[in-house]
Amino acid sequence: MTAYERYSDNLSLTIERAIYELCIGTGQCIGDAVAMEWAHFQGGYMDVVQEKTGARPSIFCPERLQIFLEKLPRRGKHILAKNITQHLSKRRAQSLVAEVRKKIEAEDFVIHGWRNTVAKELAEAGCSDT
Questions:
Q1: 3-class state of residue 59 by DSSP
Q2: pLDDT at position 129, please?
Q3: Using one digit for the tens of pLDDT, what is the confidence trace for 12-66?
Q4: CB environment 49-84: b (16+ within 10 A), e (fewer)
Q5: Phi-psi region of 27 (alpha: psi -120 to 50; beta: other; left: phi over 0)
Q6: How many domains are contained in the chain?
Q7: What is the three-state SS of 88-119?
Q8: pLDDT in tens, 8-25
Q9: Which CATH number do you get for residue 18?
Q10: What span, in angstroms and rounded, lies between the C-alpha atoms of 105 and 125?
């Protein structure tokens, strides 16, 4: 994970790093991450509309993610903005992450695995799934 962070930072790959931070910070899938809007980020929580179920949970936003988002330029309605009103497509986000993975020679470092890491960290911190 540090190789991904370092590579993104060294090359100023802001979007690639934002995808990563949103996924590991919220534990949500890439489809949910690309749809996140700035207006959904409030007071340490991120209101998320889940792509598969349509559920609207309010997800805790850890301090690391809060700090990252505070520094991130706002280029539109969405955090991962394609333009002022549209979000980056899921496929484009996956492609950007794949390019970084290839460059750092971490082909097995997959986005879905980030969710597993988050779940493990939450469980180790004593959180439940309810």
A1: strand
A2: 62
A3: 999 999 999 999 888 888 999 999 999 998 878 988 888 888 888 888 888 999 9
A4: bebeeeeeeebebbeebeebbeebeeebebbbbeee
A5: left
A6: 1
A7: CCHHHHHHHHHHHHHHCCCCCCCHHHHHHHHH
A8: 999 999 999 999 999 988
A9: 1.10.443.10
A10: 30
Task: Take residue 107 and report the two structure tokens written for it.
Answer: 């082909």
Measured CA to CA, the distance from residue 41 to residue 125 in angstroms comes to 23
Residue 130 has pLDDT above 70, yes or no: no
In a domain, 16, yes or no: yes
Q: Classify residue 43: in a domain, yes or no.
A: yes
Range of the domain at 92: 2-124
CB 104 within 8 A of CB 4: yes
Structural domain contains residue 129: no
Share of the chain above pLDDT 90, in %: 55
Does any domain span residue 90? yes
